Amino acid sequence: MHWSEFAAACPEIADIAEARFRADELVFLGTIRPDGTARVSPCEIDFAEGELLMGMMWRSRKALDLLRDPRITVHSATADRANPGGDVKLRGEVVDVSDPSLRQAYRDTLQARIDWAPDEPEFHLFSVDVGSAAHLRFGDDGVAKIWDPAQGLRERPLH
To answer: Is 0.90 topped by the overall pTM?
Structure first.
């Protein structure tokens, strides 16, 4: 499910995720290495034309992982043990973006954000298709919001 479709289906998590990802400008990306083990890498994330996009260096290990196996886990960047904003987690797959207009929209977004954009065609660009999502907030009032297309949104306490 494209980001815009996910955002319409579950704004309760999508709004939190988008605000967090935009503020942090970085997520942790889980991919599957050739030997089947997990690889966790930092990755910048951007939004353009209703898509959640990840650009990567040409032929980077994480990009090669995704070209071979598109399954991913995305986790919000966490640098504080108390983590007052909670964790955002997405699971799904990526799609290799070849559409010139979407690639240009990504480059324009990146240029506006960091005053730089990669040259074509020497970068990988992937769009995230969301399969499931969660937002976990910790502490005395901890709650887990969990969503998938089959069961919709559910909440449960974390204590």
So the answer is: yes
